[in-house]
Amino acid sequence: MNILKSSFLFICLFSNILLADDTISNLEKQLPFLSDDKKIEALKDLAKYYAKTSPKKSIEYGDQALVLVENSSDDKATATILTYLGEAHQHLGDYEKALELHFKSLQIRQKQTDKGEMAESFTNICIAQWRLSDYDKALEYCGKSSKIYEELGDQPGLAKAWHNLGIAYDWLGYHDKALTFLQKALAIREKLGNQEDIADSLTNIGIVYHFSNDLEKALEYYLKSLDILEKVGDDRGLAKVLNNLGFVYKDRDSKDYEKAVEYYLSSLKMWQKIGDNFEVVNVSNNLGQAYTRLRKYEIAYFYLSSALRFAEEKGVKTKEFFRENYEFFSDLYEAQRDYQKALEFIKKSAAMKDSIFREMLEKVTDFQTKYETEKKQRQIEKLERESDFKELELARQKLQRNSLLGGFALVLMLMFVLYHLYRMSKKANLRLREAHRVIRLEKDKSDKLLLNILPYRVAHDLKEKQCTTPESFENVTVYFSDIVGFTQLSAQLEPKALIDELNEIFTAFDNIVEKHQCERIKTIGDAYLCVCGMPDGNPNHAENMVQSAIEIITYLRHRNQLKSVKWEIRVGIHTGRVVGGVVGVKKYIYDVFGDTINTASRMESLSEPMKINMSEVTYELVKGKFEVVERGTLPVKGKGEMKMFFVEC
């Protein structure tokens, strides 16, 4: 290549101008002839260029760049290459590997001063975490990135962070919060004018409406997104929205199953072309479920078994996929009246759920209780050492000074010293008793604080054994509530006034549920979660929880008559098996997990303002004890059709 052509190539490369396909091809041909420094930069740009369109090529170039950069000690370049490799693995569906690479990049960037690059790493970690179903971590890291982007005034970065915050909130079931962040992201993206980003926002707003069971609104946003994506030729975005359209038609009506299959097949074909292993098995799973509903059992079996085999061969490690695959297999065999096989796969699905919960609970290793106990013990030992040292030093000085005196004087001085030693001993004992009293008071405060955070039995285990074992409870009723229109109301109030309002409301809720032997687990923003029947069993768990819900609604109605700020809530109640345990190391909490919690959340999202929506399972336990209105069956995400009831209050 002549000098002029070489100069032009590197001007393009290092000025970050979008490289044309022919330029990329020329660059690939020239790689063997470049010096190491220029080769590193070339490989970096090639890894970035191919990360989305050809992830395997991107990984190949990124790995080559990493080998070269090890000799240069260029930490900034290393972090950038790790980021591109993480994005490539993400597009291949290997989210665990992507997360590992993004954390390595973050560790390097935290030692440097570029906040923008740190924010980029936080955003990438957020995306990988929600893909791996760790939604709390996803919220944490997206929150960190959005804070930095706001400080920097980086609008594209802020839009991406808010976009992913919206997705994480959606998966946690907080659809109002999800819409708030997604619409804020869309507003920025529309100003910036990037059509692919606008389509991505429209798609995810459609997903939120879909999860909220507003299928017509979801369809509207999906079709807007589809129109843009077809114009810009974004295959990845198209494949995603085609799969979502399949979901809408699958959930709308049994007459639309054929249309759902049509969209799923189009999506699958595109994902296979792109090479995203996770999405290939995900859409194959969806096809298996759709064909089961169409009663085309052989085709359903083909797609479900193909998805499972492909996931195992390609190393797809997302446990949620396997859980869903086993559940769809169970539905298939149940439809064919092969109940033995159906039971076998539903057990596999349940085992996978338990595995997910166990992984979360294995992180419980050390606790603040142990630290506080050791700290108090060290204080006692220090007081004892200081007391002994002062007494001995005083005695030595007295004896040394009086040793020059004669017999009688010596006897008198010895008596005097002994008298003072006696008094000092009494004072030391008093000081020690006072220290023990102060420590005991502090310990009582710590115990009370601990009991405000944890159930008594769990707190006792932590103090006695420095550990606690997660437990499974079979008969537990779960209450979930969320404030209606919280985002709009909170925007009208000053921060202190908002916190005072929530504190007053949740304190009243606490008093009501405690009166009925229920246990408040946590509040997340405006959401309130409590249970009855754990950690101590209660034969009246369902009745107590429904009564608590009625009194909470009654309290709010009375309060709204007296206050200028009116609050309304939706309530959902469901009964079933729950796993409980302590999660965390420093800021630990007692938390609950299981399908029962998710179903209670779905009951809440399908409720109405100032209404109590309960599942058929709970209804059967309280039948005849409360006035109820049957709602019929409604579609529930991940559950199909479920029968529901409103409690009159």
What would your notes on this structure say?
- By secondary structure, the chain is an alpha+beta fold.
- Among the domains are: 244-359, Serine Threonine Protein Phosphatase 5, Tetratricopeptide repeat (Alpha Horseshoe), CATH 1.25.40.10; 368-456; 470-647, 2-Layer Sandwich (Alpha-Beta Plaits).
- The chain is built from 26 helices and 8 strands.
- The protein has helices at 3-14, 21-30, 36-53, 55-69, 75-91, 95-109, 115-131, 135-152, 155-171, 175-192, 195-211, 215-232, 235-252, 257-274, 277-293, 297-314, 319-335, 339-361, 368-402, 407-453, 456-465, 486-492, 495-515, 541-562, 595-605, 616-622; strands at 471-483, 519-524, 527-532, 569-583, 589-593, 611-615, 628-636, 640-647.
- Strands 1, 2, 3, 4, 5, 6, 7 and 8 form an 8-stranded mixed β-sheet that branches.
- A hairpin with a 5-residue loop joins strand 4 and strand 5 (589-593).
- The longest helix has 47 residues, at 407-453.
- The N and C termini lie far apart (83 Å).
- Mean pLDDT is 79; it is low at 1-20 and 360-376.
